[in-house]
Amino acid sequence: MRSKLIVVLICCCLLMFCFKKKRGEHAENYVIKHIEIYSSHDEYCAWPAMIRAANGDILVFFCLTEEHLAPDGKIVLVRSKDNAKTWEKPELVFDSPVDDRDAGVTLLNDGRIITHFWSTHWTCENYLKYPPDAYEKAVIDRWCDYVNQPDYVDAKNWQGTWQLVSADHGKTWSQPMPGKDSVHGGLQLINGTILVAAYRLERDFVGVYAATSLDNSWQQIATVHSPKPDSLRFGEPHILQLASGRILMMIRATAIPYNDADSRCYLWETYSDDNGKTWIETYETPLWGFPPHLVQLSDGRIVCVYGYRRPPFGQRVSISDDGITWNKENEIILRDDAFNKDLGYPVSLELEPGIVLTAYYQPDPKDGEQRMTPPDPKRHRPDILGTIWRVPPKADK
User: 344 vs 62, 222, 386, CA distance in Å?
Assistant: First the structure.
């Protein structure tokens, strides 16, 4: 009897070991390596967008500023000419007299690149509305002095959405022109129409805008409303057109009142089969986190990446066969080692079949734990980091 019990216990232990190993492989063993795309101790780096330019260069756009809510952000890009092995120094893209942030980028079929930026004109009154522990008093006082300078006060007309165009793979840019706010960017449809999903000016819904060429202004062709406007605010959508022609839209949902760790912060989704004119009723996915970024792999599957702002803090991935249904059980954890929730906005592209680069902003774990209430002005601020990971094999049908 005793020998049988020992055999049973051994079998149970083996099963538990295999189960843990299987879960560990799923959660961790697809990660090939983590990389540093850009790091600077005193610069706050955030909100990346990424494309592969027509010449093969990988371009990562992001905001450089002093702090999350500082009044003087600018947009830069870093470039890799060797498929993410090395990264060049930042190139300035856009630096208006006010605070430029939220980089979005759209690659056109002819190789031209459109950027989408939001510029904020801060006032001292804006800063004084934040809680006392948002920033140290000396920081707020210095920002108030900055935004009260005559040149800054007179630059109010810079607040809004701006777009620039490059015809040489991001080396030079046109003069800024009014555009549409589009976190991560939009796309050019199979039929040639340029499409973006915007949210900031609308506030209560996601607006879908189309342009037939860069010479024409954006025309609103659809709206996507939150089904729970009193408790959930939609924002920061991303769109993707599949090879079939269907357009997916994944949307961040933020709890009202604002709480980015709220249990209701699941991603919501909709799709259109008529080039963005009409969309099915939005539905809640099982994916918790934000904001989303979508990409279709060479094998046809769809990747959605999103930041995870509750413990364990980091970046996550889900993969769908059709882009409509998502299995939470198959979620891949790219990072779960961040010390705080000042992170996210991941974006992805396929470096080669089955190998993906995901870029995001996050404090580097090697820099140690950081005081965040209020933020320590002497800390190493968030960097633009990346993870190169292997896509799981397709499941047998």
Answer: 12, 28, 11
